[in-house]
Amino acid sequence: MDVKIQLKEADIPKQWYNLAADLPNPLQPPLGPDGKPITPEMLAPVFPMNIIEQEVSTQRWIDIPEEILDILYQWRPAPLRRAMRLEKYLKTPAKIFYKDESVSPPGSHKPNTAVAQVYYNKVFGIEKITTETGAGQWGSALAYACSQFGIECKVYMVRISFDQKPFRKLMMQVWDAKCVASPSEDTEFGRKILKEMPDTPGSLGIAISEAVEDAVKDETGKTRYSLGSVLNHVMLHQTIMGLEAKKQLKMVGIDKPDIVIGCAGGGSNFAGLAFPFAADKINGADIEIIPVEPTACPTMTRGEFAYDYGDTACMTPLMAMHTLGHAFVPAPIHAGGLRYHGMAPLVCQGIVEGLFKPRSLHQLKCYEAAILWAKTEGFICAPETSHAIATVIDEAVKAKEEGKEKVIIFSYSGHGLMDLTGYDAYLSGKLTDYELPEEDLNKSTSVLKDLPKPQIKKTGKW
Amino acid sequence: MDVKIQLKEADIPKQWYNLAADLPNPLQPPLGPDGKPITPEMLAPVFPMNIIEQEVSTQRWIDIPEEILDILYQWRPAPLRRAMRLEKYLKTPAKIFYKDESVSPPGSHKPNTAVAQVYYNKVFGIEKITTETGAGQWGSALAYACSQFGIECKVYMVRISFDQKPFRKLMMQVWDAKCVASPSEDTEFGRKILKEMPDTPGSLGIAISEAVEDAVKDETGKTRYSLGSVLNHVMLHQTIMGLEAKKQLKMVGIDKPDIVIGCAGGGSNFAGLAFPFAADKINGADIEIIPVEPTACPTMTRGEFAYDYGDTACMTPLMAMHTLGHAFVPAPIHAGGLRYHGMAPLVCQGIVEGLFKPRSLHQLKCYEAAILWAKTEGFICAPETSHAIATVIDEAVKAKEEGKEKVIIFSYSGHGLMDLTGYDAYLSGKLTDYELPEEDLNKSTSVLKDLPKPQIKKTGKW
User: Fold this and answer.
1) Fold classified for A17-62+109-225
2) Of A6, A10, A147, Cβ closest to residue B374
3) What gap in Å lies between CA B95 and CA B84, rounded to an integer?
4) pTM over 0.90
């Protein structure tokens, strides 16, 4: 078996898969400030209507426009790879496959949705797109996509990443985007936060608030906001990962994997690989599906499933999701892309339904796994990705103990070439593990008590 | 036609191609300090004997051991890609293909020889390998290869790159190598240079001297030196690029390219793609083959074809090559991998024979080409690679003017994700072009006048 399993362009999926069509309970609707479901029109100042239509769609399959595929071909179909040298090192009977999303121009899975979103904005007549970014993966992905379509791009980057990862900012500039540290002086909300907490490392929640403000306050009406994770349409665009992977597994005679693993910050990387397999699980296939998060930001494993705002300034609709409370500011761990207080509603409802079984891991264990990866598979992974790799190693060792030839597949969400300061901190012994104290958790989730509660009847099927 | 043309592992070349077997004049031998050809035994303290045998071989085809292929499969066969969006932007009838060497774990073509060299050292019983690195591409490639075989690695990195590219140093550390700035305090020669020129930006010549000294002074006999370019065995290992590319062109029905282009610092990237096509040219095929260098370090276009040392301290054998003189210290342009006073003897003799037609380019034009590349093809290239891209654009525009459907192929030697400070300097207007003044050239080549002269009868065939 070749290390790389390659699809031809002709075999690229021509439709995205929408999990909302198949969830046992209907997806809980986003709510407005009055507690009532919001209407598409209410989102119109923030997103173009063609994207809003995708956001609320319950259609199972949605066509991918040819213009989007034309750009995706720059790196897609992405290879499915087998981690044979890691398998050999672990002496495991498990077969380990990974969907390599690091091969895109910005080096992560993020452009799968960036390209789609910029296309829909352009078709809708939008000329400028604003966004926030955590680790910089999303900001550079949107900058890249905007450059391919000739659209203006403004990125609010969480300050701690802006400082730790200057190269991501330079990438955005090569693709002609403007990138500022958030909180910034460019928005009212940013100025307010800076006044209250001048030394804040920032957070995704704060940066989202700034980017949304920038978009909705443009009086020409030609600016919209773009979100790189969390929302339904983002999950949708990412499913090309899992749809490709299913075809690639079939190419090597594998009908279904036993275990699917992905790291989850806002949820889109996990969802992209997992949702097409979740569809099989809903139809009866025996598949364990595991989203992994850092112990320092334990949204899925310790947060509440509740209605909460997506941002710190409470400007977004209320979404039914696992959350640590919208005012939560995570500890400055190096996996910046996993530092978010909430999680994609589609992923969360899948957790509530029992489709997905989340785990959390400490960062030292994850870096240890990343170093082992570099020494066996050769490549240097993103710190976010290392959470998936550490879980894969756990499962491969378990398969060895049980003597089972399990098929494990995970999402290799990005390379770590822009994240070497984190490796440096780890290798020089400067990193520590951090577990959120119970009292801090209680405090940060206390903001949820006066908000509406989601109404889901647990099926308990899985 | 797919953007990516993929070979299966089963179709990877099983032998390297040795141009020394086919050059019209026999390759000029390296000379010792006495002016007489050196013997393999004289190189034994520096390189293991199995590599020395390859260095002096005139056998046309040399088998690639399975153990080397097993590691190369981590990224090889590398894709041949078609730059369709650049073609469209340029409105050229030319078809532009590029051999994508950026997909390796260290992000360049360098591991093609690093993996081979570390394998041969290991088989020979060597436990530690020393080397120098310019831009850091080679150092990280050797660090990577050593990590895959469990061999100790020490890298002397040219100070200007060490300072400009801290992330390359961190990459080497992830792969467990020790990396120091050269000139360093770790060798006699380094200490001498630091005393004379404490502020020197360093040079590849100085770093080579340090790495060789480190290897030959190890009394256990278990340390050897490794060179990432220039030497015959390095060119040999790189030919897998061109051999794969020929198969890939055939897959899309192209019998031969019209133009082959590669950037050349020490020559290995250019040679890797070009030599297999040069074999066809020797046999009568009409192919224009163009190595490209920076105007600031014009080895091939303005240097003398002469016997010269490969390093600044005059520790290496004398090699017949184009050279700017072994004491030449290039201006600090950002394409660090192209800052070398000499050039691979095999490439140079090919130039003398008329097989290759070198060009030089200014760096501003190259960065301009790199930005256009990022906006059309999406990917961010290494500054070295931009020299090839700028030449490709020149040739594609020429093909348009001539109305000819030429096939152009070039080597995409590496990505630029570790080189964003150079882009930053360019985008903020801090870079300038530099042309070596005639009097400086004369001064730097004056060291050649007392050295032996190569004896080549020009065939003038091409």
Assistant:
1) Rossmann fold (3.40.50)
2) A147
3) 8
4) yes
